[in-house]
Structures are given as structure tokens and as C-alpha cells.
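Re: duplicated header lines in exported C-alpha cells

Our pipeline writes sequence and C-alpha cells for each protein into one text file. With two proteins the header for the second block appears twice in some exports. Here is an export where it did not happen, for reference. First protein block:
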Amino acid sequence: MSGGVAWITGGIVGAVRMPDPEDLNTLLFTLSPIRAVYTELVPWVLGQRISPAAVGKLHYQRGVCEGLVMGRGIRLVRVEPKIWQQEFRLGTRNAAGSYGAWKRKLKTEATRRFPHLKVALDTADALLILEYARSHEAAILAGDAIGTGIPENEPLSPKPATSGSR
């Protein structure tokens, strides 16, 4: 799986690379009780450079994550990439020049907002989605939340694990 998971519990923010389903289920249990999970609503059509197999894997991954969340009775909030990204006023992906440049820009913003964490490309979106959730929901401000960031337009080929901080 690719992407990342970020959370806040007891006022402490953490983030890790997206774990496999069994480990994600354990993480959800460990962080319980969870008031809400915010996740990126990945577009159904991802562009010409992305293979249909990669799109299928991405949506399979999203379905597994959402199934684990809903199966635990946790409120799920889906947010479109352009909506949560506008929150940070970083411009647009097209203006960044390339997909990689845009992802690096998001990582830089996540690092600025969470200087105590080791932010990776895998966890940057999740941390920013978590920040979006905190700024948009009063109930989250008073409690605990978890955010997942599944990168848009990214093939889901296996990657070496990247370090994230809890």
C-alpha cells in the first residue's frame, strides 16, 4: 500500500507510511476511540500516464481502508484533493510544473507545520489532511482524529518503507 496515515491523540500528532490492512486494523484499535477518519476522495479517472491496473489497485486500497473504518463504526469523511489542498494556499498542481514538484511542495508545507516529525512523501498528504480536518470540524478540535492520505495519480508499485514518526 502507498500513502500514509496521520493522527492526533492526547494532543500528540503522529504519522506512518500506510500499513498493510492487518496493521491498519491494529492501529485503529490502538488509537481507539476515534471520532472521525478523513480520507482523500481519489478521482475515478487519474490521467493518461496511469495504467488501469494502477487505478484498480488504488481504489481497492481505498475500499479496504474505508471498510476497516466503517466496520469499526467510525465516522468517515471523504474530501476531494483540490478541496483540502486549497486550505493551504500553495497554488495548484499544474502551476507547480510536475506531479513530483507538487508532492515536494506538499511535503515542505507538512514539514513546516509539523517540524517535530520526520515527514516523508508518503505521510505528507496524510498530515495535511489531518490539519484540514482539525481546522474544519469543531468536534475534532476537542477530541481525537485520524487522517489517511492515499496519493492521487500515483501507481501503487511496491516501495521501500519510509520512516515516519509516531
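Second protein block, exported in the same file:
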Amino acid sequence: MPGTRLGRAAVVLMAGVVLGCAQPGETEETDMSQVVTFLNSGQVLPATLPFSEAVRVGNLLILSGQIGNRPGALELVPGGIAEEARQVMENIRTTLTAHGAGMQDVVKCTVMLADMADWPAFNEVYRGFFTAPYPARSAFGANGLAIGARVEVECLAVIRAGASPLLSPDAAHFGRVRHRRSASFGLPGLTVVESDTSRLDAGRV
């Protein structure tokens, strides 16, 4: 009947949209440069905050800004700019390590200071966490930072060959990540992985 044929045609059309442009006999392969992984280890900031501590796109690791808070709490370390700066850099190192990278993999830092007069004191601490050749860097003064911090630093890192571009080592170890396909980023077939490793319990896996 015409109505039945029209219904079948609509189903076929919808299936074609869902499946994309794959041709018969083709095997879909993931382009690792289009793999996006949202990461939260819970080792530095509470995992309940409304942002990921890092996002991995292929081998690029994008860190959210870090402040000088005590790990796991929204409380700044005492001691002024020098101690806050040191804790900021330690928090960055902890976050990098949690997701398969290290300070040697950092390629760019952005520094935000509540008072640019603190620049020399910050710089003295910063130098102790890198060796030449240093990452690219930019800095600016800010009219206030989260929870009254004196300094915030965000970084970009490139994870070296050999590390999985799909999952961070901790997420891959526990094997509990939510995996979905999405074209919402404007890239057909983009692979999106959400990894909240702070909620994984090794004793229960």
C-alpha cells in the first residue's frame, strides 16, 4: 500500500542519516585526532564543580586553570603569593600525571595575577618547575580570581607518542568510561569520551 511504502522509505532515509556516508563494505575507523576525552581525577579539585579539570583532544591535553588550593578542597594554602604559586604548580603537575603527561610535556602556560606586583615572586617559583627550553607563556593582571586566589595558571600539554589518545591511563585501567559518537562539534563521527575517574573504585572493579 502507498502508506506502507512511504513509511518504509522514511525509515530507510532516517537510517541513512544516522549512519552517515558509510559505503557498503567499508569499515569505520576512528580518527584519533578527533577523539575528545573529558577528564576529572578528583585529586586536585572536587569533581562536583561544573567543569572538567582537563580535556584531551587527540594528543593535546588542555588543563583548566589551577589556583593554589589544598588538594581536594576549595581552600587556599596560607603563606601569600610564594606558597600559592608553589601549590598552583604542584596542582598542575598532579593533574598532568593523572592523565598521562608531565611538566616536560607542557607547551604553553597562561598566568593570571590578582596583582602584577607579584610577578617577580611568582616567576621565581615558576622557574623551579621547568627546564629550558621553556614553554611559551603569556600573563596578565586580573581584577579578582576565584576564592580570592592571588594567582591562576592554565596550561596546554602535548602527550608524547605511545600514550593512548583515547583514554587517560587511569580511565583505561578501570575501563569504566561513557563512550558516545557525536557530530555536535561540527566534525562528523567525532568520538567523545567522558571520563570521571574520581568516581571509580579499584576495589570494586
